[in-house]
Amino acid sequence: MSSCSSRALTILSTVFGACGLLLVGVAVSTDYWLIMVEGIILQQNQSMEVKMALHSGLWRVCFVAGSENGRCVASEYFTEPDIEITTENTANILKMVRTATPFPMVSLLFVFTAFVISNIGHIQPQRTILAFVSGIFFILSGLSLVVGLVLYISSINDEVMNRPREPEQFFHYHYGWSFAFAASSFLLKEGAGVMSVYLFMKRYAEEEMYRPHPALYRPRLSESSDYSGQFLHPESSWPPPNRGRSASEASSDISIQLNQTPPEICMHLEMYNAKC
């Protein structure tokens, strides 16, 4: 059961990470984050005349109506682009959204790093730490992206709130599919990060479960034998130290000495033809 759950976590974290990387890559490279329409209301028939319509991303602004219709201009971060904007508030919106650009780029870098480390960890599952590192990078990537999204929304809302209310003018805006891709990528990356960290915990627990206890590698020597560990411990001295003689061995030697006749007595007995 645990191997099946680990395999499922491996597949899901890979799929979530790949989808998160793909979505944030598409979101950063496209220019449908914000769509704005601006015009006037004709008093005669209460119809609306569009003066300007555009869609913008992190790097480019494209006009679809008005005097700049069909023109796409790169977002200049250090100089003002040569375009004609109907109102100052619209120009301020395009300026303020530039503050959120670095965070999606950092998020893209983090999620790419996490995806590479995660795949290396799946190929070599014995390196359990790689799953944990990839999970941390997935989570950091999601946090960086959500910070960028919050800054993007707040900068637009501030300019819209400061926009003067005039009855003869109208202004509409909404977020495009590029923004939706970025928001979806945040959820996928956070999910991949949580699953990678949980996969690390399971792999670590399995390693600890099947790892033998260190006491099993230590031989247990018998206390009754002085020579049982001489081959297991080469550093021990050889030959072994002399053992003390027991009382039975000492009494045996004394009886042998008493039973033996001294050689001088045997010589005197031979002189009298007696046997020793």
TrEMBL record:
It is a multi-pass membrane protein. The chain crosses the membrane at residues 103-122, 129-155, 175-201. Its main location: membrane. Keywords: Calcium, Calcium channel, Calcium transport, Cell membrane, Ion channel, Ion transport, Membrane, Transmembrane, Transmembrane helix, Transport, Voltage-gated channel. InterPro entries: CACNG_subunit, PMP22/EMP/MP20/Claudin, VDCC_g7su, VDCC_gsu. One of its GO terms (cellular component) is postsynaptic density membrane. GO terms for molecular function: channel regulator activity; voltage-gated calcium channel activity. GO terms for biological process: neurotransmitter receptor internalization; neurotransmitter receptor transport, postsynaptic endosome to lysosome; positive regulation of synaptic transmission, glutamatergic; postsynaptic neurotransmitter receptor diffusion trapping; transmission of nerve impulse. It is found in: Cell membrane; Membrane. Residues 227-253 are annotated as: Disordered. PANTHER family: VOLTAGE-DEPENDENT CALCIUM CHANNEL GAMMA SUBUNIT (PTHR12107), VOLTAGE-DEPENDENT CALCIUM CHANNEL GAMMA-7 SUBUNIT (PTHR12107:SF12). Belongs to the PMP-22/EMP/MP20 family. CACNG subfamily. Regulates the activity of L-type calcium channels that contain CACNA1C as pore-forming subunit. Regulates the trafficking and gating properties of AMPA-selective glutamate receptors (AMPARs). Promotes their targeting to the cell membrane and synapses and modulates their gating properties by slowing their rates of activation, deactivation and desensitization and by mediating their resensitization. Shows specificity only for GRIA1 and GRIA2. This is Voltage-dependent calcium channel gamma-7 subunit. The lineage of its organism: Eukaryota, Metazoa, Chordata, Craniata, Vertebrata. The gene is CACNG7.
